[in-house]
Structures are given as structure tokens and as C-alpha cells.
Amino acid sequence: MFGDLERTPRTLLVCDRSSFLDEKNRLSSQVEQLHFNYKVSMLLPECSSAPSHLEAVLNSFNSFYLIRKLPIHELLDKHFLETSIHQGLVSGLSYRTRIDEDNCVALMPNGHLSLSLDKDSFELLGVEGKLSKFNQRTNSRYVVSVDLTDSSLAPGGRGYQRLVTGLRSRLQLKTDFLLSHHPGGGASLQALLSRCDWSEHRPEVRSHTLTDLFCPLLTSDLQSCDPHLLLEWLGAVDADVSCENSSSSFLSSLVCPEPKTTMSRALSVSVCGLLSPQDVHRLIQQIRCYLDQPRLESWASLTVHGFVDSPVSWGGDEHGVLRGGENFYSLLMFHDHTYHLHLGTGAHDTCPP
Amino acid sequence: MSVFMDLNLSFTAERSRLKTLIETAAHLGFSTVAINYVFEPATKKKQEIPTPTPIKELIDELPVVQGRYRPIRVLNRLTVVMSDSSHFRPNAAEYRCFDLLSVQPTTEKLFHAACMIYDVDIICISVTEKLPFFFKRAPVNGAIDRGVVFEVSYSAAIRDSTRRRYTIANAISLMESCKGKNVILSSAAEKPLELRGPYDITNLGLLFGLSDRDAKEAVSSTCRSVVLHAETRKSASGIVYTMKTCSESSSQQEAPPADSGEAPAAKRAKLHLTD
Amino acid sequence: MRRADTKNEPAVYRRVVLKNASPYHYMKVCLVLEDESTRLSAVDLKQFIVTGLKSLYGEVGAALTFDLLKYDEDSLTALLRVYSRGLVKLWSSLTLLGSYQNQTCAFRVLQVSPFLLALTGNSRELQLD
To answer: A173 touching B, CB under 8 A?
Structure first.
């Protein structure tokens, strides 16, 4: 009976190793595909304050809007479609909704609108959709995914009318919504915002300096270090957990992976909010510039967490929550332009790209 | 999956305790709770079936569900503890004041009747004693076909270790028969610190012999089915619905409007049929 | 349990997929006590959890190793690490722990993940107003 108690839900960890100099490296597409980023945290070893070019990027992450009780059909407003969605300038995600309980909405920058709905709402909406991959047996959740740039959804057409009527009159779906826009897309949002209760938010930047900590010896070949141990160490640094234990300690036997060295100091900076992949990409470029200069330690790491309750994770793949909806990646970059990318997901997710 | 529910918070006349109980449930992430009034007819003297106190009189402002804007939804539930078939009166008008109706049969015959005949929503599984009967496949399947669910409550297992043993043993014996279908897990908590979060209960369900998925459904989708089952029970085939228009006797608090979109009760998710 | 598909290309490109390979699970928990002025040291807390394991799973349960990675005495919040095989047991014994030194208590499990990193990046904690 209790044999099953040792099992845990599925987890996936993809480890990629490549080089920025390799023309076939897929890093930028992997970064682009995680549309909704909640937190970016960066670790710079042997550094006490970020150089100005990094500081500038961290402080220039695009701001985003919180719209309260947005009727979702407003996103299909003809003017908004033409000025923002068709230009690929906006993306957004429902806020204060939980993917394993509530109706969730995501608007991807490529113009795809993804709705994760419970059975009642799905039937009320009356638009074609698919059964959620993770709730197959009970038929309790459905995913509706529409391409708003498709000609069949051109304003005035039948498909468009059907979706708008469904959202406006039948389902009356309203939710708090986080909206971010690409540089230059701000103006096109004004018409939408003028009809709603909204506030603008800047991503929150926090930094702190760590001193005298153990650190695994990180070199670009990284043969010796197990990826889970490496991620555990990065997590321990982020959560401010001490690794100064021995296997005989009563409280904790967490130790730094061998072979290890010590760092006299390190800088950890995090940014929280609805962050766009483009901003993350800019940050990666600046960290590469930073690594180009000779340093004591020749690496830097960057971890990006996706939103737990987003209906999609990488690309347009369905995402869900069983116990925790973690979807994140951790990038370890080296002076010689090689990098190690670890992409992790929980039980209700497809394999990362 | 649907929202998390705890369909069994023990009623207490102590108003402040009931209030903190509901607040704690909301804080833990439950979107719907039911206040449970237990009615245990004694053999000799005649007793009154309790009447539910409308939630508006108990609590001024309903607390907001964790991480969301909407307030918690509170239902009323009656549990009849039966040791004799006369204890359940199918047409009692008093039952109609409650949103959910459940029975706790104490003999095999009554269990059979509860599964096959009684118009109830929930059958409680005793967690305070070793079961005096086995769960036979036929009545269990009958109950599953009729959309009646079985309830295992966990707070007795927190209070005392003997009851913990009975809870686990009886739950496992139930799961052997019902294969994890039509099971809800609820607290039966009297104090706020006896409540546990939805994910904790999901994990606890594994000890009762449920799978990961069934355990999560036992605090969400299956509970939703019960609430809808109760709504259809009050109406004729889920189509005709009668209510008094002059008084405010309808105790069921409306589900929060608009943000989830209310569906007619007839659209309830299909309960698991035998397979 | 473990699948690895490795492509070796002439350059340095290498991709490995690890399924269910996470050796540990991590939990963020908070102890709530009836008497809020009660103080517990890290050692007390760990011993208390061990008694919970022992009462539910006996000596074998008490022998389940887990680590108290971090503990904040003011908020009674802790980070735990447990072998993935022991997660269900540790979690269920936390759930069923109901009293500490004759006062009622409850462990509130705030987050569980196979990645320690995920515990510092939970978007459900995003507060905007």
C-alpha cells in the first residue's frame, strides 16, 4: 500500500552546453520563448558593485501596467488589435488568478491569445478549444488558443464576432491583467488604458553583497559538477542559506559541491515584475561584455523564473500547476563565451526547448 | 481543476471562533467552505433538527480568498448521524434549509440504503472507530453512479493518534472499493489550527491510498460536483427550481458573479461512472 | 528513472535531459503556534519534526534524514531539504503534527519544489498594491 509513498511528481531538467560563438546556438530563441518572466536574478562573483553599464540595463527594464478587472474582450478591440497586437508590441497575463483553480489568460507577443478555462466557462464561451493535457480524465479544464493575427479573426469576420460575443455577452470574463509593451508600444495602449482602472509599475531591483562564501570551482568544461548540485548551490546563495556544514551536523548537511574554493565577496541582484524576454536578452549581452574584461573569476550566472500561473510556458506549450508550477532557467556564462543553460520544469509542463 | 473547497467546518455557537475558522480557511486558499451542523437523533427523546444561521448574521464581512479579490463562499450543511433507518426523514422540510445534506450511517444496512436510495449529497466515513462493516462494491458503485460522494475528514487524525489509525485504516478500506473516485477530503475542524492547506491535504490523500490526481480532485473538482449535485437535488431534474420569493430563507450564498461565469447546474461535470 | 539523450556535435554543443532525477525536494514551512510568544530554537524545531516523523512512521520514520537549511526564529519560518523519496512522509507528518508541548500548532507549508531556486522565485508572491 505504501510503496507509492516514495514517488514524487515528474520533474524535468534540461542541461544545454554550447557557446555564444557557435552559430547554431539556440540561446536567444530559448530566452525569447519564455514570454512571461517574473524574476531575474544575477550573481557576479568577486564583485561588490555592478559596473555602470550593467546597472543601466538593470534599471531600464520596461515598466508594465496592472489593469484592474479588465474585460478580456477589450483586448479584441479593433483599434487595439491594429495598433498593438498586429504589430507584435504587447504581451500580457492575468494576475491574481491561479491556473489550477481559476480562468487564466495570456496574450503572447506573437498575437496568440491563450485562455485556460474551467468546463463551465469553456462551454459558455462557445469557441473551439482543446481539453487540457493535465486534466484529461475529469474533463474539467479546457484550453482555447486563438491567433489574433489570423485572417479568420479579422475584425468584422464571423470568427471574430463569435469570440467577441462569447467573451462580452456570454462568459463576461473579467480579470486583473498585467500588460507590458515593447519600446515604442506605449502610445498604442493609451486608448485601452483610458477605459480601465490601471496603474503603472516599475520592476523592483534589489541587490545585496555576499561576503566570504564557499563556491564550487566553476570552469567552462564543468565535467565534475552535477547539474542538480550546481542549481542547489545557486539556490542556496539566492535564499541566503549557509553551506558551512559537515555531513555530521545535526541541523543541516548541505555542503558546497566539490571541488570548491572560497569567494571573498559576490554581488547578487534581482529584478521582479512582468519582465520581457527582450530585456533579459539585453542583460545577457551586457553580462557578456562584463565577462570580456579580465576578472578574478571568469563566470557569471543569471536565473530567470517564469510565472507559475501562466497558461503557457516555453513557446505556446501548455503549462499547469500540480503542486508548484516552477518553470525557470539558469544560465552560467564563461569568459571564453561558452555557456551552460539549465531549464527546469515541474509536473504539468512539456519538455523545455 | 476547479477552486479548492473544504465542505466541512464544524459549527460552533461561539461566533468569534467560527469567524476565525472561516478566515483561516480563506487565508489557506479555500474558495468555498461549508459550515457543518451535526444532528445525532437519540433513540428515546425527540430532538429538533438544527436550523442554520444565515451567514450574514454570523460574519459581517466575508474574508478574501488568499491571493484573489473574491470573498470566500460559505454554504450550510447538515450531517445526520444514523443508527436507525427512522433517523433519516426523506421529505423533512428542515433539510431544505441546508445547501448540502449528508448522512453518516453506522450500520451496513444503513450504508447500503444511503448509497442506493437516500437523496443525499455526501456519505461520511467514520474516523472515530473501527468500521463495523465492509465497503461492498455494489453499494459503493451505486453511490458513484448516483453522484453521491464519500467524505473522509482529517482533523481527528491531527487530534489523537488512535483516531489517526482509524482514519487511515477506514480511508484505505474505502479506497479499495471506490478506487479513489467520488471521494472528498475535508477537515471537520473545530479550531483554526486544525485546518490544513489544500496542497497539504492533497499530499495527505496519498496516505489514504489516493493517487496524486485523485487526491487533488478530492479537494477541488469532486467538491464542485457535490455542490452542483446539491443544487440539482433541490430542483426537479436540475431544470425546475422553486424558491420562496417573499422571505430570505434561501440560505445559499450566491457564487461570486461574473469573474468565473456561472453555469446552470445542469452543466455539471460528469461524475465518474464505473469503469 | 533517468533518461539521457546526448548529442555530440563537433563543436561543444551538448544537451542532456534529466527526468525525475532531482535527488532532493525543498520545502518552505512556517510553524503557527496557539501561544504566539513561544520561542523555538532551530534545534527544537528539528527535534519537533523528528517526533512527528516518529509518531507517524515509527523508528524508520525517525531515521529519515532531512536538513533544516535555514530558520528564522522570529517568524518560525524554515527551509527544509529532504530526499525526494522521503518527501511524502515528511510532508504528511508535518500535516498531522497538531500539538507542541501541549499547545495546538500547525505547520503551514508555503511552497514545495524539487528545485531550491524555485523557492526564491514564486510569482504567487507578487504584490503590486
So the answer is: yes
